[in-house]
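Morning!

This is the sequence you dropped in the shared folder:
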Amino acid sequence: MKKRLIAILTSLVVLLSFIGPALYINMVQAVTDPEEWYMTVSGVLDSDYYLLYPYEKNSPTIGFSKFGEMIDPVTGTGLNYSGRDPFANEGISVKYWLNGWVLDARYVHRTYGARHLWAFAMFADMVEYGGDWLNGTADPYGAPHGGRKTNGAAKTDDITVLYNGPRLFVAMLTTHLYDVEGDDIWPVLDVSFTIIFNKVKKQVIVLKDIKLTIDAKILEGPVDVQFGDRGEWDLGPEPEWTSYAHFYHQYLETCYNASWHFSKNITREFYYHDGSFSGNTLQLPSGGADYGFPVVESSEFVFVNDVWQRREVDYTIDYKNGVIEFAQTLYNEDVKVYYKLCKVDEAGTPIVLPNLYDLAQIIASDRAVVGYAAFWPTLSDYTVYGWDYSLEPLYNVSQPDIPIGEPEIPFIIGEWDFLLDYASATSDWDRQFRGVTVYGIVNWHDADDEQLGGDNVIDREIRYQLNEVFNPWDLRSAVTNKLTSRHVIFVDGPQDVGYNVTLGDNFVSDTQWDAYCSFAERVILLPEGTLWTRGVEYDLIDTNNDRWNDTITLKEPLEEGETLKILYSTYGSPFLCGENWINTGRYEWIIVGRDAATVDSAGAAMVAAAFKNKILEAEADETYPDIIISNDKTRIRTQIKNYGNAPGAEIGLAGADMFDPEIANQMPWVMRKFGTGDEWSDYYYSGTDYRTALRDDWCHAGTVTEDEVPVTSSNMIGVGGPLANILAYYGNDFAQAIYGLDQFTDWAAWEEAIIPLTCWDITKTQAYRSSETVGYAVISTYKDINGTVLFLIWGHWGRDTYYVTKWFYEEGICQLQYAPPCTTSIIVKIDYESTPEGYKPTGFSIIECLGTISETEWIHGDEIKGGIHDP
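The structure's back. Tokens below.
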């Protein structure tokens, strides 16, 4: 157990006071950091009810500072997993805990001319650590030493915990950067981090927003920014702490692309320097095959003998060819040029931000654990061994492996180069940039590295964790690609090795048993509750010679008193319609709150009807050749009716969230009860642990045989919000549009409001509360790590729940079949007017289209939905 670092260092201060006053002063500065500058949050996967997750149930613990470093020296925590902590390793000197960010910015002030502002928050600089901002310093590497330095001025706000729910933790960290000239000081940029830590995951998402704050009146042209994550990874075993590291650049696919970002191209900063240039024509070097001309307009900064040169006064530039013409001939002068180029294709055309993200994988040299840092959008510069650039920006660096050989201690840098501007003349960037980093550690499974003698292979659990972020189960999947139904059967022992269990027609035999979003089978040994692994305790085989694996064959005996619980999926609904299967899938449950108002039940009826009668609003194709995109829903419905059965989804059972003790009102319920009573609080893990969980299944050990219906790992629709329905309360910790439950937030703007978690304007104006004339509602989906599909629809008020379900039945289910991929939540605005029959809706609009890491604008026909909401 790690002891509090403060206590240890206090003792050291007493000792060091006898050594020398200067050293004593530096130590005091570090150890007297206020404790509120730091925070540690523990994961809960190891104590949670996720039996069906196919990997180890180990929990990470994260530590961070208000400055944005992933380090809490008070508890000695950075990213701790199974005793390994690469960022706050207790076996490494604290002054070598290098983790944080570096920013370098150039811009033109209308009075002061060219400006250069740099800042870093790295916790340490290998000489000192901790402390507040050292403002006005000249050299990032020189004295005075410390973990937070700038040549301008910086001020960091206190940690703002926005939400700390049963499983969801969200905090905001903001640093304000200023430029200084004499007695004049002015804001330039804000660096804001949003930490999103789901406590049952093995990773933490950090949204890193760089925002213009400079007054537009004094800014001439864009601000040129280089911003990079960086840190030492002491992940390997003691005493060397070495690892094998590899950068997978533009290697992994994601459904997030340029439509989810203001910066539409990948740019890279280049630096040209000639200490003895002569002539008046300068040809800038291109970036080779990947980065080429034209030079990004207004990105260049030209200096002759360290004197800034004004465009159109001291020189002209041909952006297309990268040629600079000086107004006067230069003779043996020192010339420096900073400029940006776009990543280009083979034809030399700038590449629009692709559907790709980057990954650095770090394999501990003993192969016990594997760490990773994933980056979106794709990086400008990157290296796994950036020791020579620890406190400075990168220029044209692409380094996937450690150059001197491995294993070594990696120093991972991922840098984005971009422009920020208030001008509306360009659509290629705006006043804000978002970079996303996902940090995590898992047990080693199959990760490999060329330096280990094999191939570069990403660990399969890392793929699982990252796919949940970068390729999430989304609303389009929930309403269009819902093609499966979930079932449960039980097999009692004793049974010998080789015993076969046939799982029926249309069995879903996903080849990747342990992949994210797989609908593969799960086999659990009862009463121990042990998850069996395909290929280890049982095999999946084809007994019908039809190329479909549809039978489970035991490789372990089943003893007397033991039972196998088998959860599996099939394609299509479980019954026949006439002579044909309806291949549409099924939602096993539609759930309302036991104690909810009638509006939720009425809404559930419309949602069930919407799924059962679902129509496909599509372009003409071979299936429905006469159907075209149209706002005339009646026409579309008529056209599809002419073709017979339209794609739809069956609904299995309706039920409640909680058990009803009143016999006259009892029906199926889906939430697990931990207490002895029948109140909401009895469904919490304990009086202080507000987590809730789903039941395993309904009707097992009941009086009706073969009437079991799975709950965990099934497909579930919830109607009514987190105040009315415990299923929605459970899902609130996993959605991107959430309800600000009072007991979990002290942020006034979030209390009792609908919150767009991944909005670019998260803490300012974008929180939604209903009124008499305006209402708000949420439609969201999530597939949890037990494999349970949730589709949740609810309003801020009960009235909003009713009318959003009506809209969903009439229009929404059609529209969501064309929602942008990665859209996991939408927020619907409902306008009302007062009538003699009460308030009635006059219009619906989708105002937020949210994904796991960003938001987007959705253009649907002649409608524009959502958008990126920069402050």
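Headline: Residues 1-31, 574-580, 617-646 have pLDDT under 50 and may be disordered.

More detail when I'm at my desk.
O.
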